[in-house]
Design brief:
Number of helices of chain A: 4
Number of strands of chain B: 2
Structural class of chain B: mainly beta
Number of helices of chain B: 0
Number of strands of chain A: 20
Oligomer: heterodimer
Shape of chain B: rod-shaped
Order of helices and strands of chain A: EHEEEEEHEEEEEHEEEEEHEEEE
Strand content of chain A: over 45%
Radius of gyration of chain B: 10 Å
Distance between the termini of chain A: 52 Å
Chain lengths: 257, 14
């Protein structure tokens, strides 16, 4: 038997909204430790790695390891049937289930709804993600990052991110012209709107804006976002999910031919 | 012109 409950459906709704436009389907790997999802987008340019730890759930029971093939658009539709304040319970039989149930209970217990979703057989490659010491690790307000990606995407398809000890610069150019946004490191590191940079060595990397704009769908999950960069390897964009997990987006760089 | 690389090039298939 697999059963996991969250006190507030809101967090799971935001998680689905953060991945449903980038991924069509993915395997939810359920173990004693929690739920993990790892999948590449259809074009194999980006990879999403989601982790929800079991100790972050109000109730969590996983008698046997379980892999659930989920159509994310379907799950997002079901999640949208819940109110943010509803308690959500996910239930599945653990001997190779072909369906999963979602139960939403209103906070005043007057409304209980349940939805059953068919599961899929998804044959997906699992990738080994090496631990990396990054040249630059930037923490910044997630709303700021979302705004930069959206604004600059109007000027060009590619975003050049340069990071040095002075700060981080986002640049683009296209038919319309060019645009640059520079953020200096802030002095007061522990405020939500702080920009902090840990730099081993300067980096300059180029990425496709459209994927970054998919990643920023995770903005409602966390007020801060962490960008980790080293030359010629994928960018890591990380949003924490409360104190129960995180979403990591990896994006392959564009390199000059 | 910058060419888009694939994520699978960087992470090894398990």
């Amino acid at each position: 038997m697999f059963e996991a409950s969250l006190a507030q459906s809101a967090i799971l709704k935001k998680v689905l909204d953060a991945i449903k436009d980038l991924l069509n389907e993915a395997n939810f790997e359920c173990t004693d430790d929690g739920i993990k999802v790892q999948a590449m987008d259809n074009s194999h340019v980006s990879l999403v790695s989601l982790e929800l730890r079991s100790d972050g759930f109000e109730k969590y029971r996983c008698d046997r390891n379980l892999s659930m093939g989920v159509n994310l658009a379907s799950m997002a539709k079901i999640m949208r049937c819940s109110s943010n304040s509803d308690k959500v319970t996910i239930k599945a039989q653990d001997d190779n289930p072909d369906k999963v149930s979602f139960i939403f209970e209103s906070s005043n217990q007057e409304r209980i709804s349940d939805y059953e979703m068919k599961l899929m057989d998804i044959d997906a490659d699992q990738l080994g993600i090496p631990d990396t010491e990054y040249s630059c690790v930037v923490k910044m307000p997630s709303a700021e990052f979302a705004r930069i990606c959206k604004d600059l995407n109007q000027f060009g398809e590619s975003l050049v991110i340069s990071c040095s000890k002075e700060g981080i610069k986002f640049s683009t150019s296209g038919d319309l012209g060019s645009a640059n946004v520079k953020l200096a490191q802030t002095t007061d590191a522990d405020k939500d709107d702080a920009v902090t940079i840990e730099m081993r060595s300067p980096v300059t990397l180029t990425f496709a804006c459209r994927y970054l704009n998919h990643f920023t769908k995770a903005t409602p999950l966390s007020s801060q976002v962490q960008l980790s960069m080293s030359d010629e390897i994928p960018l890591l964009v990380e949003y924490r999910i409360g104190d129960m997990g995180c979403i990591k987006y990896y994006l392959a760089p564009k390199i000059d031919d | 012109m910058a060419l888009q690389t694939s994520i699978a090039e960087y992470f090894n298939l398990r």
